[in-house]
Write the C-alpha coordinates for this entry.
Amino acid sequence: MLTLALRLGMTLQDLRERMSAEELFLWMSYNQESPLSDARGDIQASIIAASVFQAQGAKVSAVDLLPRWKEEPEQVIDEAAQAEEGVEMFKAFLMVKAEESQAAG
Protein backbone atom coordinates (compact mmCIF):
# COMPACT_ATOMS: atom_id res chain seq x y z
CA MET A 1 0.00 0.00 0.00
CA LEU A 2 2.90 2.35 0.67
CA THR A 3 4.13 2.09 -2.90
CA LEU A 4 0.67 2.70 -4.28
CA ALA A 5 0.18 5.74 -2.04
CA LEU A 6 3.54 7.10 -3.15
CA ARG A 7 2.71 6.55 -6.83
CA LEU A 8 -0.64 8.30 -6.46
CA GLY A 9 0.77 11.17 -4.39
CA MET A 10 -1.38 10.32 -1.40
CA THR A 11 -0.86 9.48 2.23
CA LEU A 12 -1.97 6.08 3.51
CA GLN A 13 -4.87 7.75 5.29
CA ASP A 14 -5.97 9.44 2.02
CA LEU A 15 -5.69 6.13 0.22
CA ARG A 16 -7.83 4.31 2.79
CA GLU A 17 -10.48 7.03 2.82
CA ARG A 18 -10.76 7.60 -0.92
CA MET A 19 -10.23 4.13 -2.43
CA SER A 20 -12.76 1.32 -2.30
CA ALA A 21 -11.70 -2.18 -1.32
CA GLU A 22 -12.55 -3.35 -4.83
CA GLU A 23 -10.18 -0.84 -6.43
CA LEU A 24 -7.46 -1.67 -3.92
CA PHE A 25 -7.74 -5.37 -4.82
CA LEU A 26 -7.49 -4.47 -8.50
CA TRP A 27 -4.30 -2.50 -7.81
CA MET A 28 -2.90 -5.44 -5.82
CA SER A 29 -3.61 -7.80 -8.73
CA TYR A 30 -2.02 -5.36 -11.15
CA ASN A 31 1.05 -5.12 -8.92
CA GLN A 32 1.53 -8.90 -9.14
CA GLU A 33 1.62 -8.70 -12.95
CA SER A 34 3.63 -5.48 -13.25
CA PRO A 35 5.34 -4.36 -10.03
CA LEU A 36 4.96 -0.71 -9.11
CA SER A 37 8.44 -0.49 -7.61
CA ASP A 38 11.40 1.49 -8.88
CA ALA A 39 13.55 -1.63 -9.40
CA ARG A 40 13.10 -1.65 -13.16
CA GLY A 41 14.11 2.00 -13.43
CA ASP A 42 17.28 1.24 -11.48
CA ILE A 43 18.07 -1.66 -13.80
CA GLN A 44 17.44 0.40 -16.92
CA ALA A 45 19.58 3.27 -15.63
CA SER A 46 22.44 0.92 -14.75
CA ILE A 47 22.34 -0.64 -18.24
CA ILE A 48 22.53 2.79 -19.88
CA ALA A 49 25.31 3.96 -17.55
CA ALA A 50 27.28 0.75 -18.15
CA SER A 51 26.94 1.21 -21.91
CA VAL A 52 28.34 4.75 -21.66
CA PHE A 53 31.26 3.61 -19.52
CA GLN A 54 31.96 0.61 -21.74
CA ALA A 55 31.99 2.85 -24.83
CA GLN A 56 34.82 4.75 -23.16
CA GLY A 57 36.73 1.51 -22.47
CA ALA A 58 35.78 0.92 -18.83
CA LYS A 59 35.54 -2.67 -17.67
CA VAL A 60 32.21 -2.40 -15.84
CA SER A 61 28.91 -4.29 -15.97
CA ALA A 62 25.37 -3.10 -15.36
CA VAL A 63 25.28 -5.13 -12.15
CA ASP A 64 28.26 -3.16 -10.83
CA LEU A 65 26.27 0.06 -11.19
CA LEU A 66 23.06 -1.04 -9.49
CA PRO A 67 22.39 0.92 -6.30
CA ARG A 68 22.68 -1.10 -3.14
CA TRP A 69 19.83 -0.13 -0.85
CA LYS A 70 20.85 -2.44 1.99
CA GLU A 71 24.23 -3.66 3.05
CA GLU A 72 24.37 -7.39 2.41
CA PRO A 73 26.46 -9.44 4.83
CA GLU A 74 29.56 -10.87 3.24
CA GLN A 75 29.81 -14.62 3.24
CA VAL A 76 33.17 -15.88 4.35
CA ILE A 77 34.21 -18.79 2.19
CA ASP A 78 36.65 -21.11 3.85
CA GLU A 79 38.37 -22.71 0.87
CA ALA A 80 40.29 -25.18 3.01
CA ALA A 81 37.09 -26.44 4.65
CA GLN A 82 35.40 -26.74 1.23
CA ALA A 83 38.34 -28.69 -0.16
CA GLU A 84 38.33 -31.02 2.87
CA GLU A 85 34.58 -31.55 2.51
CA GLY A 86 35.06 -32.36 -1.17
CA VAL A 87 37.74 -34.92 -0.35
CA GLU A 88 35.50 -36.55 2.26
CA MET A 89 32.59 -36.74 -0.19
CA PHE A 90 34.85 -38.27 -2.84
CA LYS A 91 36.12 -40.88 -0.38
CA ALA A 92 32.55 -41.75 0.62
CA PHE A 93 31.63 -42.11 -3.06
CA LEU A 94 34.58 -44.45 -3.68
CA MET A 95 33.71 -46.53 -0.62
CA VAL A 96 30.13 -47.00 -1.85
CA LYS A 97 31.38 -48.02 -5.30
CA ALA A 98 33.88 -50.46 -3.76
CA GLU A 99 31.14 -52.05 -1.63
CA GLU A 100 28.86 -52.33 -4.67
CA SER A 101 31.56 -54.03 -6.72
CA GLN A 102 32.36 -56.48 -3.89
CA ALA A 103 28.68 -57.36 -3.51
CA ALA A 104 28.31 -57.88 -7.27
CA GLY A 105 31.53 -59.87 -7.58
Observations:
- The two ends are 68 Å apart (CA to CA).
- The CA atoms of residues 18 and 87 lie 65 Å apart.
- The mean pLDDT is 83.
- DSSP finds five helices and no strands in the chain.
